[in-house]
TrEMBL record:
Family to which the UniProt record says this protein belongs: Belongs to the major facilitator superfamily. Sodium/anion cotransporter family.
Keyword hit for Ion transport: yes
Limits of the Major facilitator superfamily (MFS) profile domain: 1-431
Subcellular location: Apical cell membrane
Main location: membrane
Segments traversing the membrane: 85-105, 111-134, 146-168, 174-197, 238-256, 276-294, 315-334, 340-359, 380-397, 409-426
The organism of origin for this protein: Erinaceus europaeus
Protein name: Probable small intestine urate exporter isoform X2
InterPro entries: MFS, MFS_dom, MFS_Na/Anion_cotransporter, MFS_trans_sf
Topological category with respect to the lipid bilayer: Multi-pass membrane protein
Keywords, sorted A to Z: Cell membrane, Glycoprotein, Ion transport, Membrane, Sodium, Sodium transport, Symport, Transmembrane, Transmembrane helix, Transport
């Protein structure tokens, strides 16, 4: 998220400033005047670059280019050998590279893109491998709550960087965004190595009763799959394909929102960079709350047998796709109102979290023994969407700055609904036969 919030500050907006002053003979409005002053402040505290919208799209999406082949081996290795060192290494490498981004930007676009590709690989190691921890730590009736608390950390991170990134860029310069959060990541990485344990049996602080409760609740789901992976059965599994396709379509929308929200507010709503950061942050705070509430609600409905688990997954998916897609698609027609646009973005994030709960945790339902590996496979689809969607959005916007945004959100809604339909038809929540026993096919 660091790059998303500082991108408007990194780009040379001289042309935009000229347009603001020459496109009409009327005097500048207060918002335009404030924005021009902000641009001048940015140019004074940090370097800027002449990057076209297509180049910006490539830089924003490059984080996902090297990620396409990494999730599967990361999830597999973490599932076999444990996630502690895989996740820790990914966190540390990504944080160190974050410190180097300002130097890479000065060196050139190619160097910057290469660095972000490597950084994306490191982040995949951390994001994908953590699912193997929950296989060993999360009792089935508490699983949704625990995993959504974990996932909510990602949107809280987005909230913090968006809230503070614009202010830091405007006061100290955009490079300090990378320095501060990269340094924090390095510190956290070392804490991870000291505090995290692979399973309850090796943890020195929890009680014996807690260890026995966790271990006994997980006995029915088996243990680590070892080196054997039922590849053929997975390829033929429609419930698995429902997760994978829905992951692709959901993250197509997710990456557009996360990477282009600051740019949309800055260029369309004419907000200054500080306000852009704050306004872009609020939807993620709402999403954070939605994650926590949604996880608690799923466990409540499931543990009390109010609804079947598959029904819960599908209902959450419907809310998590139809509402966000409809709201984003409507932005083109409500851009005249700043307040309505912000409200739509907030509601989109709130409902979007429900889609994550409906789809992303489903791999723990159908194959808990292979959860880390399947999380890696699903990440391939999500990063594929992340590699394509910002580039496509940048292309649309470069063709037509006004209707490009409309076309971007229209395409996103269409893709999202296709994934939802497939998920509603083919998804399941029971452990699949191929996840209960070892097959003959090996990886």
């Amino acid at each position: 998220m660091n790059m998303s919030i500082v991108m408007p500050a990194m780009v040379n907006n001289a042309t935009l400033s000229i347009q603001l002053n020459t496109s009409t003979e009327a005097p500048l409005t207060d918002s335009q005047d404030n924005r021009t002053e902000t641009l001048q402040e940015y140019n004074a505290v940090a370097p800027t670059y002449d990057w076209s919208p297509e180049t910006q799209g490539l830089i924003l999406s490059s984080l996902n280019y090297g990620s396409l082949l990494t999730p599967i081996p990361s999830g597999y290795v973490a599932g076999v050998f444990g996630a502690k060192y895989v996740v820790g290494a990914g966190l540390l490498i990504s944080s160190v590279l974050n410190l180097c981004i300002p130097l890479a930007a000065d060196a050139g676009v190619t160097i910057l893109i290469v660095l972000r590709i490597i950084q994306g690989i490191a982040q995949v190691m951390a994001i994908t491998s953590q699912f193997s921890i929950w296989v060993r730590w999360a009792p089935p009736l508490e699983r949704n709550k625990l995993i959504t608390i974990s996932l909510s950390g990602m949107v809280m991170g987005c909230f913090i960087i968006l809230l503070t990134g614009g202010l830091l860029s405007q006061t100290t310069g955009w490079p300090y965004v990378f320095y501060i959060f990269g340094g924090m990541g390095c510190i956290y990485s070392f804490l991870w190595f000291f505090l995290v344990y692979e399973n309850p049996m090796n943890h020195p602080f929890i009680s014996t009763d807690e260890k026995e409760y966790i271990m006994s609740s997980l006995t029915q789901e088996g243990h680590s799959p070892g080196w054997s992976i039922p590849i053929k059965a997975m390829i033929k599994s429609l419930p698995l394909w429902a997760i994978l396709l829905s992951t692709f379509t959901t993250y197509w929308r997710f990456y557009i929102v996360t990477t282009y929200s600051p740019t949309y507010m800055n260029s369309v709503l004419q907000d200054n960079f500080r306000d852009t950061g704050i306004l872009s942050a609020v939807p993620f705070l709402i999403s954070f709350v939605s994650y926590l509430i949604g996880g608690q609600l799923v466990d409540y409905l499931f543990s009390r047998k109010i609804l079947r688990l598959i029904t819960i997954r599908k209902v959450f998916s419907v809310f998590g796709v139809l509402f966000p897609s409809g709201l984003l698609f409507s932005l083109h027609w409500v851009k005249f109102s700043h307040n309505i646009t912000i409200a739509f973005l907030m509601l989109s994030s709130a409902f979007g979290s429900f889609g994550e709960i409906g789809v992303q945790i489903n791999c723990m339902d159908i194959a808990p023994r292979y959860a880390a590996f399947l999380r890696g496979v699903s990440q391939v689809f999500s990063y594929t969407a992340g590699a394509i969607s910002p580039t496509v959005a940048g292309y649309f916007i470069s063709l037509d700055s006004e209707f490009g945004w409309r076309n971007t959100f229209m395409l996103s809604a269409a893709i999202d609904i296709v994934g939802l339909i497939f998920f509603l038809i083919f998804s399941q929540a029971e452990i699949q036969d191929w996840a209960k026993e070892q097959m003959d096919t090996h990886l």
